[in-house]
Amino acid sequence: MSRPRHIHTRTRTPDVPKGVPAAPASDVPQLLRLLHLASPALPIGAFHFSQGLEYAVEAGWVRDEASALEWIGGVAQGSVATLDLPVLWRLQAAWARNDVEALRRWNSFLIASRETAELRLEDRHLGAALLRVLVELELVTDVFPVKDATAPPGVAHATAFAFACARWNVAPRSALETYTWAWAENQVLAAVKLVPLGQSAGQRMLHALNRRIGAWGARAGDFLDSDIGISTSVCAVASGRHETQYTRLFRS
């Protein structure tokens, strides 16, 4: 069994306004780190993508609060919980032990598992954008250089997310739940805009999804490698058709 290569991680000191004392990065609580990563204000462009939801609305598959929750919950249970989260768990562990081979293997596996060009584009876009943000937050890795982040195979969003969580010593379970929450919030916001739904409906949907997120995160570390996969064929069809949808708000 080959020994993992050492990962060189560089840090930089961010600009601090005059008169404001700079606290060490290690002093920032985990909760604040997670809120930062989950924030919709994080400039990675997640709001540009609907993951097939826009076509599902166009086709009438999603038409109200109940069907939107069923769609989002179904995609989460059949894809995020069974693909993204188990791989994210492995990626964070690989970052923690400086295992370059495992990082590249699971990163490539995750991107290859995206069933349409649109979904692969989204994953690479979010991963590259998050790496650029992390440079400004004192984290740089030589394993996935920012300048090469969009070249095939690219950097998956989960790979960059796991990098930040590993370097900030975020508990794996918290990382999994935060990643899922951010995904769910973006999907709910897309549904609110597309169906359209009211803000109260969006909050009810998030409340319902919150009851499931903990269970999905709890199971992620128990998956065997052979168990990891997806079962969301209708979402793949919606994403593929969205690529040629005549009128659309979200990126394709």
Report the average pLDDT across residues: 87
> Tell me, what is the CATH class?
Mainly Alpha
Poorly predicted regions are none
State the shape: globular
Order of helices and strands: EHHHHHEHHHH
Terminal-residue CA separation: 42 Å
Predict the CATH topology. Answer: Urease accessory protein UreF
Number of helices: 9
Widest β-sheet, arrangement of strands: 1-2
Structural class: mainly alpha
CATH superfamily: Urease accessory protein UreF
Radius of gyration: 18 Å
- The percent range for helix content is 55-70%
CATH architectural designation: Orthogonal Bundle
Label this structure with key terms:
2 strands, globular, Urease accessory protein UreF, 252 residues, mainly alpha, single chain
